[in-house]
Amino acid sequence: MPNIKGDDGALKTIFSNSKIIAVVGHSEKSSRASYQVAKFLQAVGYRVYPVNPMVKQIDGQSCYPSLEAIPEPVDIVNVFRHPDYLPEIVESAIAIRAATLWTQLRIYHPVAEKKAIEAGLNVIMDACIQIEYQRLFA
Prior knowledge:
The chain is an alpha/beta fold.
């Protein structure tokens, strides 16, 4: 499956069929975009798992050191990390059988994108999941 950024039908299907989102690079600081987007996703009904090995808890919720440590299947892996980290994040997303890899604005890595697509993941790179959700469902 190609990078489906811009395919509104496919994006609506992903949002509608997904329940659990892992936010990789979730910050405990409320001023950070990762924190704000995660709170938005929770507010619209998704179960959000923060992934950040440097943080133990965020707002009383356990924070996981890796995607593999999350105790249930993940539908969307939403990434707030520098593009240099994407190859290893893609490996983990494939290992946990996530359906979708979604990277935030300005996060793009062509080799990681190719690997994720070849593994059968839905791929959206360089797009804000909150902005896209609000655009499609507001």
